[in-house]
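Design request, tokens follow.
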């Protein structure tokens, strides 16, 4: 723990957050829907941020808490992207690609939670 930049899940989630910013900048439906735009970018940034924070904390229990928060942020982002895809007139394929990215990251976080949980009972 303590080297979050080396975690593949952090790298992928950071890259996803960057691609989400590009997506919302090009999505016409979000030009005036500031609330959804802010929610999408906030949940996207929350994922790598919580992975990083959890990795830097002193105990496994504290770290796991932040990994669960990151996993919850993935679910939020997926939900918001599904909504955006349904109301969008353009970018549907690009939005679907970001949904798939978030689903992969969610699985990666789950596996990291499982791996680190094994150290709780030792």
């Amino acid at each position: 723990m303590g080297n979050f930049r080396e975690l593949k899940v952090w790298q992928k989630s950071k890259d996803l957050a960057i691609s989400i910013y590009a997506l919302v900048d090009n999505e016409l439906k979000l030009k005036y829907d500031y609330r959804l735009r802010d929610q999408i970018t906030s949940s996207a940034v929350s994922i790598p941020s919580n992975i990083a924070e959890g990795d830097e904390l002193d105990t496994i229990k504290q770290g796991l808490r932040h990994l669960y928060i990151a996993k919850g942020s993935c679910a939020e982002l997926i939900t918001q992207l599904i909504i955006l895809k349904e109301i969008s007139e353009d970018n549907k394929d690009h939005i679907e690609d970001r949904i798939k990215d978030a689903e992969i990251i969610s699985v990666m976080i789950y596996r990291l939670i499982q791996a680190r949980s094994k150290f709780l009972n030792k």
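Comment from the thread starter after seeing the answer: thanks! The mean pLDDT is 94.
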